[in-house]
Amino acid sequence: MQELFSQVQKHLSNDVLSQLGRQVGASDLQSVSKAAGGITELLLDAIAKNASDPQSGGGLYKAIEKDHDGGILGNLLGVLGGQAKPRNPSTTNGAGIVNHLLGKKQLEVAQVVSQYSGLDIFKSGVLMQLIAPVVMGVVGQTKKSNGLDLGGLASVLLGGNRSAGPASNGRSSGMLGKLLDMDGDGNAMDDLLKIGMKILTK
What's the rounded Cα separation, in Å, for the pair 158 and 76? Predict the structure, then answer.
């Protein structure tokens, strides 16, 4: 997963983060950047969990195949700024992506990201919807360029995640993942509901 995380971060350049900050009404680029890193890791965790689940994996794979080939990554600023329109509107449907991946956990994720980054919870939630198409674009591009089937995609997601422990030291999202992954199974999403409110009430 670390490779996918790094690819997303490459696309979230300072120019892109500034654009995202303007869209959510946040002027502190550091907070936006920190929130973006946490959101990226948590969404990748959620995608990995979906991809490895026999019940949800097939649907996720079809959605990636149909709507997320990585095309938006070629003109991300244009798409985010509204100057460029993707051929497939579902490509940029961040609310739909987040709802599919997180379901009822959306609020808890936004709360933890807000607490972690210092970005307002509402802005964290909106930022999550804006970043979701970028994350899915990177996952889709990886699937397409490597000719991965569902098993191969799950292997890339889970394999990278499980081996990323020490290697993730020093990157902000790795620290967030470590904070959330209390049972040490490599998947922060499993522990999110247990500690989201606990962090906020400290």
Answer: 27
108 within 8 A of 192, measured Cβ to Cβ: yes
SS (H, E, C) the chain: CHHHHHHHHHHCCHHHHHHHHHHHCCCCHHHHHHHHHHHHHHHHHHHHHHHCCHHHHHHHHHHHHHHCCCHHHHHHHHHHHCCCCCCCHHHHCHHHHHHHHHHHHHHHHHHHHHHHHCCCHHHHHHHHHHHHHHHHHHHHHHHHHHCCCHHHHHHHHHHHHHCCCHHHCCCHHHHHHHHHCCCCCCCCHHHHHHHHHHHHCC
CA 30 from chain centre, in angstroms, equals 18
pLDDT digits (tens, 9 = 90+) for 16-53: 999 999 999 999 999 999 999 999 988 998 898 888 88
Please state the domain extents for the chain.
2-200
CB atoms within 10 A of CB 103: 9
Region of poorest pLDDT, from 46-60, 85-99, 175-189: 175-189
pLDDT value of position 105: 84
